[in-house]
Write a structure and sequence with these properties.
single chain; alpha/beta; TIM Barrel; 9 helices; 8 strands; about 40% helix; binds pyridoxal-5'-phosphate
């Protein structure tokens, strides 16, 4: 068994055990395997081991890595988990099944226009800056309600949930709890939260998607594969 296969089994086992301990339904949590910086060969290994949901944080890197993999008979679901520039919206709408990082009105408007033009509607999550960090992407919690209204009512975007990346130095549970509460209040069912270091905490607090990179693929290479 390859290291990636063994890691996947381990992570899946921990997800299942946490679902059970938290009285959550079996398989109610989806594992998004974050393959950023890892080569296509690593993704292929994960596919062979039964993984089919992947996360990438750059449009360009995903565009280079995934079309060939997609040509295989395996059904792949690709998530964008990194910041999206408006000039990459066309490519992103064509490539991703879920865009997790909708974080400003200008981007929401560009997505609405491109979906209309292309006739393709990836699911969307709104990234919330739960720690209100000035340098970090995401809608501040106080502006979320107005932003959801803009996305849903005015732009008719397929918003299905929320995602967050807690501040590195904070206790993540507080941020996961806050995100879950905001999703509940707005009737949003998808909650993308939790990474290698804290996905079990996120599952206990209601995550439906955990984004796990290094615990599946090992430490990331320093440079992007060419
Ligand atoms: C890289 C990344 C992850 C995965 O991080 P690990 O700590 O390697 O599991 C999850 N979410 C986002 C937004 C990322 O950029």
């Amino acid at each position: 068994m390859s290291a990636i296969h063994a890691n996947l089994q381990d992570v899946r086992g921990r997800i299942a055990a946490t679902e059970k301990a938290a009285n959550r339904l079996e398989s109610s949590v989806s594992l998004v395997a974050v393959s950023k910086f890892h080569p296509a060969a690593a993704v292929e290994e994960a596919i062979t081991a039964g993984q089919h949901i992947f996360g990438e944080n750059r449009v360009q890197e995903a565009a280079e890595k995934f079309p060939a993999l997609r040509a295989s008979p395996n059904e792949i679901e690709l998530h964008l988990i990194g910041p999206l520039q408006t000039n990459k919206v066309r490519e992103a709408v064509g490539l991703f099944d879920v865009i997790e990082t909708v974080d400003r009105p200008k981007l929401a408007e560009a997505l609405a226009a491109e979906m209309e033009r292309a006739g393709r509607r990836p699911d969307l999550l709104i990234q919330v800056n739960t720690g209100e960090e000035p340098q970090k992407a995401g809608i501040p919690p106080t502006e979320l309600e107005a932003f959801i209204e803009l996305c849903r009512e005015k732009l008719r975007l397929p918003v299905i949930g929320l995602m967050c990346i807690p501040p590195i130095d904070d206790e993540p549970a507080m941020h996961f709890g806050l995100l879950a509460e905001m999703a509940r209040r707005h009737g949003l069912e998808t909650l993308s939260m939790g990474m290698s270091a804290d996905f079990e905490t996120a599952i206990r607090l209601g995550a439906t998607h955990v984004r796990v990179g290094s615990a599946v693929f090992g430490p990331r290479p320093v440079t992007t594969p060419s």
